[in-house]
């Protein structure tokens, strides 16, 4: 085993790595000595066999003495002490074969633990590589490249497109478009106006701008971030090995029994025999074998666990701290709704915006273009494209000037106010789309604002089920730490049932919060950005969503999820708990057998060589038990048969296609609320009823008849689908109520004012119920199936907004 146990599953400043070569070279040496001695004995060369076995014993004894001395200097008395005493004892009493057997056992234990503890470098290369080495300083009309350390407070620095802001300062000339994800983890670009502060480490995603330096490099934000990661990575106390926990009572007991056997029996051989069978093979072997098996099992699930200690700590975790963007959410903005001015359809607005945005590198532009292409829209080739940092894109599309961007609010209108309110409530970003005006104009005067596109970073579809599995597995506290605003953070926390939500957290705040949680319980931190690296290093176990490439997060983490699926976290925690349980079980059973053998050896019925062989038999038993960690345990996930999975994928696709139907209900209700019992509102209600009866209700009835019966067996009975069946009943009831109202209006020749209140309750109720029902089915059923592809899954009710043909609300 490693003489310096790793720090809390951590990357820290571990000095045990140089002993890896010794552990692996010692094993073949001791095995060779044992085999050569056996061959010499068979050939009748007894003296040569004894010398060979002595050499093997000494080969194991010398490094073992160094390992024990190192442990004693740290104030630890581990089970290695028993191995040293037994090795010395066999030499003193001439039990050379027993010594050679013990040497093989010690070498095997060291090699196994070395394999369990081997891990990748944790030098946080990504953080260091992101730090700029130079800056461009402007003096008058001259711009010189200077070393970063030469930048002084008050210098005027030029930051070009794609460059990293070198020091903290304030924007001096033009507005800046910044990618602040390195600090906040948020994927949406941020506009900063002239005079606003800007922090070092952020990336210029727009045109060149100038910064007035407020701090030198060493005192700036990003330098502090690097220091936090380094300090957190070096701070943790070492984890106590399973073997050493039990050694607190096992070692004194073994020594006492050996001393009693010598004193009472009058034979040093008896004492050595006791030490031989007390040599904690189960302790030395069981834990490493179970942990290595768990590491292997985790790898097959697409999870890299970088050390055995990390897996063992993961099995004891009670608190989970999560970042939001890229961890609980998909990390990429998605179109959730399209609002339009009167006379325009959502498909027209999206097609115009996507056509203009095709050449823009902006993250929101990419989301709009992807949305249009997913919906099969044919985009026009833009000309005269101009990217305005902080404002958006203007381009000529089909002969008309189109402006797309996050600009100032357009002229007040009921539909624009509705968009602003919706964005505030949903925590969404608004991209306005205008047509007309003059391309050389710096403002938006003359534009006809034709629509608005709302975007949001959606939750991962497996987030709800994964967190539920983690609670079942033993996690008692789930905490969200995010640099995002409070409103969207609280919404995510409420949807996922988290115990605590902390928004607008800087990297330093995250580290402080993780340290506080760690004081109370073994804490796991999950993140995916450079800004998460210090917090990952500060946690007992850091877990990185590393599927998108090497980042500081994956460098700082103990566990890396190599696939972009959060449910793998639940899988690896289950593996960790089972591996640790098997390690403890094997160690306890092995020690019990060793205690029984010690009693037999103490009364002289078990000589040292026979005791060593018996101990090897115990080793085999505990190793076979520990190897059970290679096999999957009792599954806590549902495996769908092929026919059920095909149905899930079919109805999931229908959900995406029906996403454009749900807004028809809301739009009709909005129109009724705005205009009252007018013919226009009646027409909108009839359209909503048509969509409901021709598309939504047939889908729900097909689910009831086909999908739910197919899920009954995999989910263990009808109880799992009963709530959804009850929702279908309520949907049918409200649909009949809407149809009845329309029949009454047809009979009367108009919609009567007395119907308005009940119609509003009915239609808004239908819209809310269907949204909830869709979300529940996606969480409970659709998340069970393997993704058909890596294409993003959309669950919001406006994902297919570009396909809507109904009249938009005015």
Automatic annotation (TrEMBL):
Residue ranges, compositional bias (Basic and acidic residues): 791-810
Coiled coil: none
Compartments, as annotated in UniProt: Cell membrane
Keyword NADP belongs to the record: no
Record membrane topology: Multi-pass membrane protein
Keyword Disulfide bond listed: no
Gene3D superfamilies, A to Z: Calcium-transporting ATPase, cytoplasmic domain N (3.40.1110.10), Calcium-transporting ATPase, cytoplasmic transduction domain A (2.70.150.10), HAD superfamily/HAD-like (3.40.50.1000), nmb1532 protein domain like (1.20.120.520)
Residue segments, region Disordered: 785-810
SUPFAM superfamilies: Calcium ATPase, transduction domain A, Calcium ATPase, transmembrane domain M, HAD-like
Keywords: ATP-binding, Cell membrane, Membrane, Metal-binding, Nucleotide-binding, Translocase, Transmembrane, Transmembrane helix
Span of domain P-type ATPase A: 130-229
Positions of transmembrane segments: 21-44, 51-70, 82-112, 246-265, 271-292, 582-606
InterPro entries cross-referenced by the UniProt entry: ATPase_P-typ_cyto_dom_N, ATPase_P-typ_P_site, ATPase_P-typ_TM_dom_sf, ATPase_P-typ_transduc_dom_A_sf, ATPase_P-type_domA, Cation_Transport_ATPase_IB, HAD-like_sf, HAD_sf
Hemerythrin-like domain span: 647-785
The family this protein is said to belong to: Belongs to the cation transport ATPase (P-type) (TC 3.A.3) family. Type IB subfamily.
PANTHER family given in the database record: CADMIUM/ZINC-TRANSPORTING ATPASE HMA2-RELATED, CADMIUM_ZINC-TRANSPORTING ATPASE HMA4-RELATED
Protein name: Heavy metal translocating P-type ATPase
Lineage, opening ranks: Bacteria, Bacillati, Actinomycetota, Actinomycetes, Pseudonocardiales
